Amino acid sequence: MRETNRDIFQAIADPTRRAIITLVALQAMTPNAIAEHFDTSRQAVSKHLKVLTECELVKQEQSGREIYYTLQLNKMKEFDKWIAQFRKLWETRFNQLDDVLLTMSANKQTLKNKKK
Amino acid sequence: MRETNRDIFQAIADPTRRAIITLVALQAMTPNAIAEHFDTSRQAVSKHLKVLTECELVKQEQSGREIYYTLQLNKMKEFDKWIAQFRKLWETRFNQLDDVLLTMSANKQTLKNKKK
DNA sequence: TATATTTGCAACTAAATAGTTGCTTATTTT
DNA sequence: AAAATAAGCAACTATTTAGTTGCAAATATA
Question: CA of A114 to nearest chain B CA: how many angstroms apart?
Answer without folding.
Answer: 33
